[in-house]
Structures are given as structure tokens and as C-alpha cells.
Input
Amino acid sequence: YLAGMNTTISERIAIVKNELGITSDAEFGRACGMSKSVANQLKSGLMKSFAPRYAFKLEENTVFCARWMMLGEGPMKRDPSINQAVKIMEAMSESRRRDVVKIIAPLLES
Output
């Protein structure tokens, strides 16, 4: 899908809907925490920017990256295991997170 090409918000919405098997604006809106009318306005080009709160909600609910959804920059998707690791670490205390980083950081060098 349009890899490496500049895409419009409407094109990015179409890509997300297609890849997730979403057929309605209402369903897409639910994935982003927005109303059907906001989804419709974004798709039609009436709204010119994808608000961060919607993009991050989409990232939370799917594998699609918020930065890509908002700006069309960076990777389109995140590996699902990264999302899982983030959720696990968010549930930990700060000291536990530091311990985990100490354990996994050396793995970068191998």
C-alpha cells in the first residue's frame, strides 16, 4: 500500500479500514474513539488534520502507528509484541521497569 509515498488522511483511513476489514465509518470511529460524523468529515477531507487523541486511541486499539495516522510519516504499523511489551511495562512499578531495561538492553548488542 503506497509504501514510501505521501498519503492523505483519507487514503490512510481507507488503508486502515481495508486492513482491519472495517466497512463503516461508525466502526472506524469506534476504533479511534470518535463519532461517525467526525470519521466522515476526515474521510471526506472536511477536516484537515487527524487529532492526536484519535490517532493514539487507534494505536492503542490496533497495530497502526499514531504518527503515521496523523502525519503519514514513520512506520505504518507496530509489531503487536511491542504493544504487548508496552502494556506489561506500563503495569509495572518504575523500579521494576528499570530492572527490565537492565535485562533487555544487553540483548541489543547480540
